[in-house]
Specification:
This protein has 283 residues and is α+β, with helices and mostly antiparallel strands. Helix content is 20%, strand content 27%. The protein has a six-stranded mixed beta sheet with strand order 1-2-3-15-7-4. The protein has a six-stranded mixed beta sheet with strand order 5-6-9-8-10-14. A hairpin with a 2-residue loop joins strand 1 and strand 2. Helix 4 runs parallel beside helix 6. The N and C termini lie far apart (38 Å). Bound molecules: zinc ion. The site of zinc ion has 6 residues, from loops.
Length: 283
C-alpha cells in the first residue's frame, strides 16, 4: 500500500512493503514543495525541460535537506528510453563522464547512494532484494516497458547476485493510468508478443487504438520472473488524472517538469565522493 508523507515542504509517497526493509530510505516524490513556477510548479527536478536552473537547484537543495542526504549522494542518469541498466560497482570509481550515463535503470549494493529516476507519466519501478540488500530503480516508459526493462532488472538480480524470487520486493509508483493512455498501433505492436498482453493492452471501439496499462505491463514482467504477487506494491495513481499532485507529460501537452523518485541503502558510505570539472569519481 502507498501512503503520503511530508518531509520539510516536500510531499511524497512511500510503499508499506518497502518500508518493512529497515535498511532502506525511499520516496516517490510529488510535484509539491518546490520553488519552480507556472508549468514547472513546483518541485521540478529536471534541468532539461526549460525551467530556470536556479529554481531546479533550489529544489534539489530542498530535497537534500528534507531527507538529510548530501546532494552529491544522489545519482541521476540520462534516461534515454532504452533498457540498459547501470550496475554500480560496490567500490571504486563508477563513471568517468556524465555523457556516458545513458541508462534507464540503476542497480547498486552501495550504502548512502540515492539512486534516482525522474518521471512525468513514465513508470518508476523500485526493485529490492531484501536479503542480499541489492536495490534497483527503473524508468519504464512505453519503449523501455516494451523492451522488458523491469524483467531485465529482476533477471540481473537472479543471474548476477543469486537472488531468490521470493526475496525480491517491487514497488510501482505513480504513472499514466490505463484511464488516460490511448496508444496507436506502433506502440501496441511493440507489446503484442509479451506474455499476457491482453491484461494490459485493451482494445477500444476506435479502430487502431488501444488503452495501455504501463504499470500493469511492468507488474506482469516482474511476476513472470517468479516474484510472488504479494511482493509487488502498486500505487494505483494516475499522473494525468492527478496533475495537482504530479507532473504529466501527456496531461500538460508536453511542457512540464519532472518528479524525482529515489531509493537508498542506509549506512556509512565506504567511499568518498568528489567532483571536479570533468570527472565525478569515487574513491
Ligand atoms: Zn487517468
Amino acid at each position: 500500500m502507498f501512503s503520503f508523507f511530508k518531509a520539510g515542504q516536500i510531499e511524497y509517497l512511500q510503499s508499506s512493503l518497502l518500508n518493512e526493509c529497515d535498511f532502506l530510505i525511499h520516496a516517490f516524490c510529488t510535484r509539491r514543495g518546490g520553488v519552480s513556477q507556472d508549468d514547472y510548479e513546483s518541485l521540478n527536478m529536471s534541468f532539461k525541460e526549460g525551467d530556470e536552473d536556479n529554481h531546479v537547484l533550489q529544489n534539489w537543495g530542498r530535497l537534500a535537506a528534507a531527507f538529510n542526504i548530501p546532494l552529491e549522494q544522489f545519482l541521476v542518469v540520462n534516461q534515454v528510453h532504452k533498457d540498459d541498466i547501470f550496475v554500480v560497482k560496490p567500490y571504486g570509481g563508477y563513471f568517468s563522464s556524465r555523457a556516458e550515463l545513458d541508462y534507464d535503470a540503476i542497480m547498486t549494493t552501495r550504502a548512502d547512494l540515492a539512486i534516482c529516476v525522474k518521471t512525468a507519466d513514465c513508470v518508476p519501478v523500485f526493485i529490492v532484494d531484501r536479503v542480499k540488500k541489492v536495490i534497483a530503480v527503473v524508468h519504464a516508459g512505453w519503449r523501455g516497458s516494451a523492451l522488458g526493462i523491469s524483467a531485465k532488472a529482476v533477471q540481473t538480480l537472479l543471474n548476477n547476485y543469486g537472488s531468490s524470487p521470493q526475496d525480491i520486493l517491487a514497488a510501482i509508483g505513480p504513472s499514466i493510468g490505463q484511464c488516460c493512455y490511448q496508444v496507436d498501433s506502433v506502440v501496441a505492436d511493440a507489446f503484442i508478443k509479451q506474455k499476457d498482453c491482453e491484461e494490459f493492452l485493451i482494445t477500444v471501439k476506435k479502430a487502431g487504438r488501444w488503452m495501455l496499462n504501463l504499470a500493469e505491463a511492468n507488474r506482469r514482467q516482474i511476476l513472470n520472473c517468479g516474484v510472488p504477487e504479494e511482493n509487488i506494491d502498486m500505487s494505483g495513481l494516475c499522473t494525468v488524472c492527478n496533475q495537482d499532485m504530479f507532473f504529466s507529460h501527456r496531461g500538460s501537452g508536453g511542457i512540464t517538469g519532472r518528479q524525482i523518485n529515489f531509493m537508498m541503502i542506509k549506512g556509512e558510505p565506504s567511499y568518498h565522493a568528489r567532483t571536479d570539472e570533468n570527472n565525478y569519481s569515487v574513491q
